[in-house]
Amino acid sequence: DARRLGMGGVILSEVSQSSTQNVAYRAVPRGKGSGASSRSIPIPLGLIQLLASHPEFDSSNPNFNVFEIAQLIARTPYTLQLVKPQELSSDIIVDVAQNSLAIDLGELQRLFPDRDLRFGSTFASPNLEFGTKNIFAGVRPQVEVRNSMRLDPTLQRALGEADPFAPNTTYGAKDDARAQGAIAFTVGTALPIVPAIASPDGDPRKGGVALYAGARATYLRGIALWEGDGRAQFATGDTIFGSGTPLEAQYDANVRQTPNPAFDAGKGYAADAGFVVFLHGLEIGLGVNDLGATIDWKNTDLDNYTYDTATNTNVKTPVARGEKFKSQFPVTGTLNLAYRWGRTTVAGTLDRTANERYIPRAGAEIWMGPTPLRGGVYLDSYQLLQFTAGSGVKFGKLGLDVALATQSRGISTQRGVELAASLAIY
Questions:
Q1: Residue 4 is inside which H or E element, if any?
Q2: Which of 5, 48, 310, 312 is the S-S candidate for 403 at Cβ 3.0 to 4.6 Å?
Q3: 386's torsion region: left (phi>0), alpha (psi -120 to 50) or beta?
Q4: How far apart are alpha carbons 48 and 218 in whole angstroms?
């Protein structure tokens, strides 16, 4: 949604996706005038760019680049990349002696920070809902993909800070990954608990007092699950490169999956809830999604993988077959504030993402006749400040919105610039 992106990604009652993240917004009446509520249809400029120039997926091809694939996974390809973040590249300096090893990765040290490395997202679109603004039902896919890795302090300092590897020291890392998919069937309601009082044209954005609340119940039919957790480590000997003290490596992982993905592989339930209050031009909203979102899988297989140093092979050991298992989707939510006077709106949002991180956002919109001016900032998951700006034009009930935004999504902390465009229906 270019209108929302131009304002820093804030949520408020005028922009698209507000009811997706806070179900109570379904009951808020649509406004009138230049800053009226709009429904947005994004124009996927980035998909055209991706089709014209996509990464090489064949690992045997000389042009294969794992960093490009990682960037594609981490960055939504709907936007047009005007300035791509600089690819990770650096001179690597290795100091080697019989009992000493130091590796300076340069810029690549950013890949090994002193914290969890989290990549992932929850996809819940397209969301097909039908009904009235007060009572509705719908169906949508619900997919989660995530990976979380944590290096031991010794390995993190060696790779992320160029500390020398030491004799008689253990270095390790732990990794957890999950992918699950389901079809979500929803039914919900959103109602005016306190209808707009003393609001011009019945629009609480223009003044007065109003309170709206909503809830959405979800029935999940699980399709497939893959989940793994692993631990790898190696230990140096008395002498790092001594002939009599070889490196000792260990690897252990548990992998659980549904052997036969199907529409009835699992079932579960979830709930969304939210409220919105308007107080004399001030808007406050709180929405929480996927409360208690769990799936009970009827049939999963669990295998253990270890590394055999003698044969230099992975060893697969079946642990369980046809076992029941319960998985969970992460809880997400938004807290948003907005204040309006005349044709000006300022807003802020605090998002809780599927990666269990909190993203603060702030933005503003000023209408000058049929043309809006927008700007915003947000603090991304790397704690980098990103900037956005946008504009557009309104033709009666239709409009076109565009937005420019800096971003550092993916494995690079360098900033890029993206362009978004969307059609608006007022």
A1: helix 2-6
A2: 5
A3: beta
A4: 34
DSSP 379-425: E-TTS-EEEEEEEEEEETTEEEEEEEEEE--SS--S-EEEEEEEEEE
**Encoded tokens for 159:** 């790779």
Cα 343 to chain centroid, rounded: 32
Are 417 and 83 in contact by the 8 Å Cβ rule? The answer is yes
Distance CA 106, CA 104 (A): 6
Q: Which residues contact 110 (CB under 8 A, 6 or more apart)?
A: 88, 412, 413
Question: Is the whole-model pTM more than 0.90?
Answer: no
pLDDT score, position 284: 97
Mean pLDDT, each 10-residue run in order, the chain (426 residues): 93 85 92 72 79 73 71 69 71 81 81 78 82 93 90 90 88 93 96 92 90 97 95 84 70 93 93 96 95 94 88 87 94 95 94 89 94 94 89 90 87 80 88
The Cα 194–Cα 206 span in angstroms is: 16
Nearest Cα neighbor of 350 from 364, 332, 330, 336 is: 336
**CB–CB of 49/82 below 8 Å?**
no
Structure tokens at 12: 């408020």
Q: What is the pLDDT of residue 355?
A: 81
Residue 134 has a pLDDT of: 93
